[in-house]
Amino acid sequence: MAEAAIANDNADLMLSVNNIEVVYNEVILVLRGVSLDVPKGALVTLLGPNGAGKSTTLKAISGLLGTEDGEVTRGEVIYNGKNVANGSPDQIVRDGIFQVMEGRRIIEDMTVIENLRLGAYTRKDSNAEIKADIEKVFHYFPRLKERTGLAGYLSGGEQQMLAIGRAIMSKPDMILLDEPSMGLSPLLVKEVFEIIRTLNKELGITMLLVEQNANMALKHCDYGYIMESGKVVLDGTREELLSNEDVKEFYLGGGGEERKSFKNLKSYKRRKRWL
Amino acid sequence: MNWDLLIQLLMNGLIIGCLYGVVAMCFVLIYKSTQIVNFAQGEFLLIGAWVCWWFLTTWELPFIVGFLFTLGFMTVFGIALQVIVLRPMIGEPIISVIMVTIGLSLFFQASMKWMFGVNVQPFPRVFDTQTVEFLGFQVQTAYIMSLVISLFIMVGFAWFFKTSKHGLAMRATAFDQQVAQSLGISVKNVFAMAWAISAVVSAVAGVVIGIVNGVSDTLAFIGIKVFPAVILGGLDSIIGAIVGGIIIGLLENFAEFTDSQWFHVGNLYTIAPFYVLVIILMIKPYGLFGTKDIERV
Questions:
Q1: CB distance B181–A170 less than 8 Å?
Q2: Which residue, A59, B70, B164, B262, could crosslink A65 as a Cys pair with Cβ 3.0–4.6 Å?
């Protein structure tokens, strides 16, 4: 079922994950055959409950799985026609995929500018070009420009902006975003998502976004996948997912059917699992 | 009170303290970026000094050429050491890695003795004038050179970590290896670079001390002196390493002064830094500039 409708047009596919299986520490099976396609220039979102394997899917793509003793044991990750499964993370960054990890993970004992310069680590460009790109990041995130101290003292939202700005600095073709809304106030979440959409449109950066905030993610995405227990259980375009009764029920709160009592709702949820 | 002697000794202390600081910086560099406590730090000085001495005496190269060759050799040596010996140890328990560096230290000391003998060998004359007048004191040219080189290295380190791309990458790796990898930094290369820089800079200190005192295996003892300096400054602070080094250098010479004036113990000079080590570990185990959650070994 993970075969997306848009997957038919192979020429426009940037990333195609084919039936991957991921094992941690050689014993723990986390992903049990995940497939998804990301077309060039799209904003694709990956939703699901905690422990579904969303972050693991991103790490399998970016190669960071290796730093956590994980391994892709089956299937392939095709990026621009090349299988990058189990590749080294630094090579994958050089190839143009940059992951913004969960929890922002900026370098707290460095300044904003130093963090941004590190984002450009893999580029061979001159200092002047990198400076110009830092200005470009400040254009999208004006409030970062005023922060001259250490990045550790930035607010959560600013840190998230810095993490995204750092990703832009590497001039990626594709950004993997892991829960950009984590720990942010609703207003900031809105702001961050709007910036993500703008970057996707203006710079043409393909995005694969993992989110808990299904409302926000579905509002901005082009296409979505829903994962549960290491498998993709549902996928569809934004409109399809937004009108799906199960998605409404499980992720967006409340279904379109008649009102049920709280007790009934719970038992209904328990019975109706996708797997 | 013999004021002239005191000032002379404190000046020596400052100069040797700067060198301790430089070696301590090298030690901290490896500790910060690779989490390895390098007990073979002093042997880097020894190897550097002997190799330079060998270039100057056996090959009769001019000093500057021999010195540059030594730096080239130490770069290759540092990288090779990391790739061949320490890279396979990644992920092993910290105590195993420490045992390996202690083993390396013994191995290098023994092989240097085997190759170059056990006697002190003087460096060929590097400077035409042996002493210069400085603020009314007769100071050995070599000491002035040593001070200048130490300061030059410290400024170099500051520049490297503040502005260069590889310095930033090294700091990122020290902060969080996974984040560094997500930025496209090859952690393996950073490790190799840390060992290479550490070996080269230590060798410079080794050559400088060799020029002043002659080359012998007592040079490796500097590597032990680095521990009080580093513990005093904080195990993971470059600034702390420099400050700790200078304090230990001054303290050592002050101990020498008090010893010669009043106590007449004879070897307070060598022991004093280690008293400091014990006291610091008791009252301020993270040192002056260290971060609190550093793992002790």
A1: no
A2: A59
Whole-number percent of chain A with pLDDT over 90: 61
pTM of the prediction? Answer: 0.86
Domains of chain A as residue ranges with CATH: 5-243 (3.40.50.300), 244-275 (no CATH)
Chain B residues close to A62, C-beta within 8 Å:
182
Residues of A with CB under 8 A from a CB of B: 62, 64, 67-68, 88-90, 93-94, 98-99, 101, 105, 107-110, 114, 117-119, 121-122, 166, 170
Per-residue model confidence (pLDDT) at position B193:
95
Q: Choose from A114, A125, A173 for mutation: most chain B CBs within 10 A.
A: A114
For chain B, domain boundaries: 3-283
Distance separating alpha carbons of residues A129 and A169, to the nearest angstrom: 11
Of A90, A108, A170, the CB nearest to B181: A90
Residue of A nearest to B168 (CA): A118
- Assign 3-class secondary structure to A23-45: EECCCEEEEEEEEEEEECCCEEE
CATH: 1.10.3470, 1.10.3210, 1.10.1740, 1.20.144. Which one for B3-283? 1.10.3470
Residue A97 scores a pLDDT above 90: yes
Helix (H, G, I), strand (E, B) or coil at A231: strand
Residues on B contacting A at a C-beta cutoff of 8 Å? 165, 168-169, 171-172, 175-179, 181-186
Structure tokens given for B81:
């050491």
